Predict the structure.
Amino acid sequence: MQREATSWAAAEFKDIDLGDQRLNKRAVLLAERLAEKPTASIPSACGGWAETAAAYRFLAQDELDWRDILAPHWQSSAERMRACEVVLCIQDTTELDFNSQAIAGLGPLSYEAQRGLYLHPTYAVTPAREPLGVLDAYMWAREPKGPDGVRPGIKESTRWTEGYERVAEQAAALPATRLVYVADRESDIMALMVKAKELDHPADWLLRSQHNRTLPGGGKLWDQVTAGEPPAAE
């Protein structure tokens, strides 16, 4: 008898441990269904009402954390990275818009009337653009602005600094792989640069410059960079 091939999701989540084999199997099946139809709703992605109801029961498990579900994927991503000389660890922020839904724990988005969450993932790719997986995710809900127009809660720039810290942890575990933290100009903040220096730069960082900083020896950053010569090719 020919053995049935293992699906990509079963291979990716082979080490998943949610405390119950039924939950493990449901996580794998749900990953397969949503990957097949990434823009579909859960009912549209699932194979019938029974499967849809089971998916909602899975997602309603209070004792499960999203990190528990992603843990085996993170491990698989790290193993793929181990085989690479250089890995780009790309970060950016996106909005999860749930404005029309009554869900507890949401906060304002770009407009105060919008409701949703913010997601800040780290995506690993090779310089040849081969995807290796997601390494980390930072999620939060904004607090509404107070009467004074000031928004309480966490300092949102923290996501960039913590993102570098997670990449630095990966770099320590993958000494033969050069990790490069890549981010847009919103990450051009001194807190991130100070943190990288405190950690002794275990991962390189490449930031899109937003501020034309004054250099310690005089002059401006952009002038010095644009006046420099590119290194000779080896």
Remarks:
- The chain is about 35% helix and 15% strand.
- The chain has two domains: 1-64, 85-227.
- The domain at 85-227 is CATH 3.90.350.10 (Transposase Inhibitor Protein From Tn5; Chain A, domain 1).
